[in-house]
Specification:
By secondary structure, the chain is mostly helical. It has helices at about 1-45, 70-75, 80-110, 120-130, 135-145, 155-160, 165-175, 180-190, 195-200, 205-220, 225-230, 240-245, 250-270, 270-280. It has 2 domains: about 1-45; about 75-280, MetI-like (MetI-like fold). About 70% of the residues lie in helices and about 0% in strands. α4 packs across α7.
């Protein structure tokens, strides 16, 4: 009898402690979500208030009157739309080029590892991941200036054509998990390495392609340093256009929300593939 009572008490204590842990985890997640979503909520609220509210102090948390004209004003602004179009085209084209070139390089490192010097070259690529990006800015500017490519979009295309060490590493890890029987069957059918890569490997690599594509797109879309360094008129691209002075705060907030939407939509479209890509590139 005493043992049964003690057992029931221990179960109640275990359930109670489990409930406390679950509440603590939930409370921690709520705080974490608030930290991440807080600035976004404040930005959206700022985009829905009038410019006159910024002249009063203190500024209220919620707008006195919700105004959607700020978004309509930005969508009717020729200057904003031109910068948006140029930035989107540059981001998507460089992302596609970077994704393909990094995939081709990663495939070579994964499947042609027996070639002399491949491990040494792969070590150089990996070491470039640890070089601070800011260190390369001045050498890159000197090279592009001597090639007369400053104030053009060619530097972005050339950098994308060379691939990115992080993306090459991700592709190499992903391709290393592919069964060799697929390539052997393609070789029997007379396919070269490039044809095997193009028609067999790439169609089965949607997870890692989604990860690299959104990373490469966001790297150009959200960049502020390179347009300021390489363009005589940095306002051509949207990231530097938003940072330029003499903008109304409400219009600037609405433009910033519109600026963030393409990346959010792209992430939601390929969210499942991104999770798989991050998972499988860590194997091997």
């Amino acid at each position: 009898m005493n043992s049964a009572v003690a057992s029931s008490r221990s179960k109640k204590v275990a359930r109670h402690s489990h409930g406390q842990k679950r509440f603590a985890y939930l409370f921690f997640l709520v705080i974490l979500v608030a930290i991440y979503l807080g600035p976004i909520i404040l930005l959206i609220l700022s985009s829905l208030r009038s410019n006159n509210e910024y002249a009063t102090y203190p500024i209220r948390l919620f707008p006195e009157r919700i105004i959607f004209w700020n978004y309509l004003g930005m969508l009717r602004s020729r200057e904003f739309l031109d910068a948006l179009q140029r930035t989107f085209l540059l981001s998507i084209t460089t992302a596609i080029i970077n994704t393909f070139s990094s995939a081709l390089t990663g495939y070579a490192f994964a499947r042609l590892s027996d070639v002399r010097g491949s491990r040494f070259l792969y070590g150089i690529v990996i070491s470039m991941m640890f070089v601070p990006y800011i260190v390369l800015l001045i050498p890159q500017f000197i090279i592009y200036a001597r090639l007369h490519l400053v104030n053009t979009f060619w530097p972005w295309y050339l950098m994308a054509l060379g691939g990115t060490p992080l993306y090459i590493f991700m592709y190499r890890q992903f391709f290393s998990n592919f069964p060799s029987e697929l390539e052997e069957a393609a070789e029997i059918d007379g396919c070269s390495h490039f044809m095997t890569f193009l028609y067999i490997i790439l169609p089965n690599s949607k997870p890692v392609i989604s990860v690299v594509l959104i990373y490469a797109f966001n790297a150009v879309w959200s960049d502020y340093i390179m347009p300021t360094l390489l363009l005589n008129n940095p306002e051509k691209l949207l990231g530097t256009w938003l940072a330029w002075p003499s903008r109304f705060m409400s219009y600037l907030s609405a433009a910033t929300v519109l600026y963030a939407l393409p990346v959010i939509i792209l992430f939601l479209l390929v969210q499942k593939n991104i999770q798989k890509g991050i998972l499988f590139t860590g194997f091997k």
